[in-house]
Amino acid sequence: MEFTITGANAITYPYLHIWDWRVAIYLFLGGLAGGCMSMAAVANLRPGKETPKSQACCWRVPMMTPVILAVGMGFLFLDLQLKQHMYRFYMTLQPLSPMSWGSWILVLVFPAMIAFALSTVPESAMDKLKDGMIRNLIIKAQNSMRPLAKLNFLLGILLAIYTGILLSSFMARPLWNSSILPVLFLNSGMSTGAATMILMARRSSVKLFFTKVDIWLIFSEITVLVLLYYGQFTSPEASRESILPFFTLTSQYFPYFISILTLSIVLPLAIILKFLEISSDHSENIELTFKQKFEMNASAVLVLLGGAIIRFALVYAGQLSKFTGLS
Question: Iron: is it a keyword of this entry (predicted)?
């Protein structure tokens, strides 16, 4: 299998592309869903929130998260060549197969997501529901909001890091085969989750809180990205050559250089750093102006765009990498 996917003979393998944009979107949405799970849990567990300790203060993102993951799994389904055999993933569990673990993780996180979403249903929506099974389920979930939030926080980390493990398990692709890649995807997933919280939050204090959180996440993301490049550069020749698309200013590799460096790191960091100065000069109860909210939301959009570009760049650049000498 590894010889097949690293074949470099132009006659035997005139065109070989394992994964395309559908997988890149799936990896992005999977990481985003994991980040939303964890960040929504943080919003409802953090000390000093506006609502009582046992009552949810954030409900939009928990409601969105199952939909985000379902859409991501839809793109993964589109990538399957033999779609009618998808059920076979759930006929067995292979302990040494990341894909087998992933297929089960994706299914098992849904009940936790939905239960947490139900626990955050606001009172205004509850008043519109008639007595019945759904209302009873919501009441039971609301009584366990904090335990469900803690469970979602952990499962969100597991889901986000799995998207990186899926790539790093491919030993035949030097760019992917790095133990740092899952950490990068975890960081990026948490950062995009925080960005989603900024976009969806209505309270200024919540926007400021997650802006501060996202600053640290982006600093961490930069560090991990540098370590990924450093690890590849100091590794054998195949790994060193795998990062050339990101540092080669040619017509073929120029999009990789610009997309990774500018969109995923420089612009989001430069904009978010401005809000560090804004938030440090005000109390948590400050009401942000329209301009401040617009700038903060624009920063969050750039973070989301950067997270998507990281997935696309690594998925495509990883398939350019190969071990030399194989043909």
Answer: no
Q: Where are the domains of the chain?
A: 2-318
Give the pLDDT confidence score for residue 278 in this predicted structure. Answer: 64
Q: How far apart are CA 192 and CA 187, in angstroms?
A: 9
Q: Write the class of the CATH domain 2-318.
A: mainly alpha
pTM passes above 0.70: yes
Q: What is the pLDDT of residue 290?
A: 77
The reported pLDDT for the residue numbered 150 is 94
Contact 192, 35 (CB under 8 A): yes
Ramachandran region, residue 48 (left: φ > 0; alpha: ψ -120 to 50; beta: rest): left
Helix, strand, coil abundance in the chain, percent, nearest 5 = 70, 0, 30
**Both structure tokens of 177:** 């085969």
Q: At what angle do helices 21-45 and 98-119 cross, to 10 degrees?
A: 40
pLDDT beneath 70: ranges in the chain: 1-18, 50-55, 263-267, 270-271, 273-286, 324-327
Q: What is the Cα–Cα distance from 71 to 29, expressed in whole angstroms?
A: 8
